[in-house]
Task: inverse folding
């Protein structure tokens, strides 16, 4: 019932500017106006990824709940796990508005938020409250810092004991020169600092690296080398893209990162290439353009052990998480797959 209500509310939300609509959606969730069904699960959907026991592989990507204000209702909306943030050491307002644009003809969005958030202390306080469900934190850096690599470790130390995993985000296109940290030497130094910080936490928290889709094969190979050298737990592929090929919307020329349907094929190719390079030895989380159960399965066949949604929620409602989980379960059953683990990376060649 509530999932249906959320869909009915979408036309009204789309009358508002995108960022205002996003704020209203978060407030509605906090008021209990979203689905309240708990995580969808089944023997086919349940798995373990990097030590995380997931009821289903459908997660929420970082950026939807930047300040961890709607954790409990999001965990009730059908997701197998959620990721909040990005969090930076100090609060920062981000880039000037408008900074979020709907590309409705393309089922896409462009954002240039610039890591707007209330800072690690406020976010840590909310994450410290009791909860039931798997929650991760996306680690960010303040844009005015000269040594941004230190910020990632600092946020991990402040928040790491309150979450189930953490993601190093060096792939946002909206903080100047942030993507430079994806270079081999800089990335290795950054990740070693994060892993040193992790060693001081009470538990060996899984650490993921979120990468950009705008990387060539040499850069992907270097990232895989660094991932194995530093001992991180997995890679999230991918963040938003700077590519604008084939867009129809009047907002196509806006600066920022593009997400949604136009990203699906390219991000899935990157995912499949990572699966090939890692030979299945490193867990991968597939993100980018997922809006249907069939697309979710495609990511899994390309190499993803888990998935994350974001932009499609703006077009289909928060109930999409449960819809995709149920639909994915049905597709696995139809194909005679007893558990999602058995499907991971089994058809990556199709997507290369």
Result:
């Amino acid at each position: 019932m509530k999932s249906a209500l959320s869909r009915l509310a979408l036309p009204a939300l789309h009358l508002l500017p995108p960022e205002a609509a996003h704020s209203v959606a978060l407030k509605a969730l906090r008021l209990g106006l979203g689905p309240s069904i708990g995580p969808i699960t089944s023997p086919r959907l349940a798995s373990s990824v990097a030590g995380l026991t997931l009821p289903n592989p459908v997660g929420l990507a970082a950026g939807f709940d930047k300040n961890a204000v709607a954790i409990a209702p999001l965990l009730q909306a059908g997701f197998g796990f959620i990721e909040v943030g990005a969090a930076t050491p100090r609060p920062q307002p981000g880039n000037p508005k408008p900074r979020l644009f709907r590309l409705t003809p393309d089922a896409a969005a462009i954002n240039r938020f610039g890591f707007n958030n209330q800072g690690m202390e406020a976010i840590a306080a909310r994450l410290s409250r009791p909860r039931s469900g798997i929650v991760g934190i996306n680690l960010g850096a303040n844009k005015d810092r000269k040594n941004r690599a230190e910020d990632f470790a600092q946020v991990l130390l402040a928040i790491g004991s309150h979450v189930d995993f953490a993601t190093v985000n060096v792939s946002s296109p909206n903080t100047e020169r942030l993507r430079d940290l994806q270079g081999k030497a800089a990335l290795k130094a950054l990740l070693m600092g994060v892993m040193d910080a992790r060693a001081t936490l009470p538990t060996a928290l899984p650490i993921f690296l979120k990468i950009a889709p705008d990387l060539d094969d040499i850069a992907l190979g270097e990232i895989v080398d660094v991932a194995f050298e530093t001992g991180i737990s997995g890679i999230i592929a991918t963040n938003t893209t700077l590519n604008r090929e084939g867009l129809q919307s009047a907002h196509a020329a806006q600066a920022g990162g593009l997400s949604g349907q136009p990203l699906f094929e390219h991000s899935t190719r990157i995912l499949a290439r990572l699966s090939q390079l890692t030979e299945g030895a490193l867990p991968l989380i597939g993100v980018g353009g997922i809006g249907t159960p069939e697309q979710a399965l495609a990511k899994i066949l390309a190499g993803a052990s888990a998935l994350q949604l974001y932009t499609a929620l703006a077009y289909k409602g928060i109930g999409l998480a449960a819809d995709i989980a149920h639909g994915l379960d049905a597709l696995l059953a139809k194909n005679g797959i007893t558990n999602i683990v058995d499907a991971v990376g089994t058809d990556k060649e199709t997507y290369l």
Notes: The radius of gyration is 18 Å.
